[in-house]
Amino acid sequence: MFRTEACHLSTLALLALLAGLALPAAAQGPPARIAVVDIETIVTESNAGKKLQSDLDAFRQGAEAELRAKAEAAQALEKRLDETTDPAESRKLAKELERATIELQRTRDDKQREGQKLQQDGLAKVERELTPIFKRLRDEEGWDLILARTPGVTLVVSDRIDLTKKVLDLYNAAQP
To answer: Which of 140, 142, 130 is nearest to 167 (CA)?
Structure first.
């Protein structure tokens, strides 16, 4: 949470600095043209973003099935351990249960890391694919600055400078 607040404060400071720089520049030439894009909307509503979400859902379901199977195997070992009266069998089952429990935790950690990497890689890919669109809008429409619309940072935005729909349409059209 502290990191998010620091990020918001940094963004606000940047916006204040930009606004301060734009005032003297306005006296010298046309005012800076600033636009915003809601990246979250692009990710959730674009074809590429929907595919990423589908891939993440499929990964999560597969990981949950694998973890469920390992947890059930560990529970079965625990039940057998509870039911046994033979000390040698009890020691053997206790070791198997310990190994199964460790393997379950390792698998859970691995799947969490894999899922996070899949998500990060997918979002990075979307960002890379959006960059030429932002450059095109900058060059063709004369936007000086295109900012990400961030809740808590961007308080009020005119529809006139919100390029989200246009970027979404261009992005979907660019996808195979």
So the answer is: 130
